[in-house]
Amino acid sequence: MKNLVLLPLFVACCAVPARADLSYTQTTSSPFGAMMGNSSGIVSKVYSKGTFNRTEAQMFGRKMITIARGAKSVIQIDPATKTYTVGSASSAALAKTRMPSGAKMPSMSMTVSTKKLGVQNLRGIKAPHYLVNMDMKMSTPRGPQNMKMGMEVWGSNVSYPISAKTRGDALQSLPANIKGMFGGALNIKGDLKGMGAAFGTVPLRMKILMNGQPISTTETTNISTKALPASLFAVPAGYRAVSNQQYAKTLQASMRQSMATMMKNRPKR
Fold this sequence. Notes:
The protein is an alpha+beta fold.
């Protein structure tokens, strides 16, 4: 259950591959949205300039900002407390700061199969439609666990600059918000070329299924390649640096409060 709650969070919140200048809005609807204080869905705004990326999202009753500076570092900003923390750019390290204290990221392996379902007209764009199936095996403190995950992806006409053709590695062409869901201990094999093609453009729509059950739908709008100011990728003046541990502690307290409020306000049977 805990992993399912965190999954839409990673989808909406992690950084994406770099482009000269790129911005868009994503709205992720999920049964777990209420736990994050967003009954109408998690709305995130994504900005990319060169190798820098910025994601803004309203979750757990507070605005969260993540700035990824290429492969060097990730800055997490909390406007509510005017604090920020600087950490590793690895998805595993970033995910660790968002998990409850003492929790460990499970090691996972995944076999991928991809099928192109055709082309669908979506909001006036001829969107390539893919189905990506993932068979995951996890090693957890409770023992081995198997899980089947599926993603339906509708592409767009705006491609990411990092591709399998230029990097020679289909996995590296995947958006970091997809790789970030699984952590750094994930071993992926199978149809990586097809997976890279499915996520080769900014997705207009993405549906995630876990063991055959839908858990989230993400819609992407306001896609733009207009120039962005460099100030978007800097820490605002007057903000105070805190440790990764202190930042995680504040976020976890907000998560607990949000979930407690949800349980208190849920309809009585």
